[in-house]
Amino acid sequence: MQFKDLYELQAELDQEIHKLHNTNYQKTMKERTLAFIVELGEFANETRCFKYWSLKGPSPRDVILEEYIDGLHFILSLGLAIHYDTNTIFEPIVSDKSLTEDILKTYELASSFNNNVSFTSYNLLFNTFLGIGVKLGFNETDLKEAYYTKNNINHQRQHNNY
User: Looking at the 3D structure of the chain, how many domains does it have?
Assistant: First the structure.
């Protein structure tokens, strides 16, 4: 999977946010990392994969995809913050473990990235995150189309003092 176009769109959104809120990548690395983790939790909540006590099934696919895309926005932003090569071809890591275990692993990798910011830790985090999407049946086209839609919404939110 290749996301150069999404990195470019994310850079535009990030610059708009930076200007409106008088900030930059360096000042907000911890917040961006936490935002990714929070979005990952919101995504997990919609999948309901960990809710062993409930008989209710997961949210509809489009709701799960929207929450996943919120995480994608922040992981792209983290890559831009560390000047990651936006031409990178990502290879999703699809595990044979449960969705719950995959999400926990992604939390672990996000924490590791937070403690040791590097291209290697970022690449592993991104590929693991993408593996979750692939496991749920999302392909590159699904991700890009959903990203475009949510990116437009995020720009509108900035214009409306979100």
Answer: 1
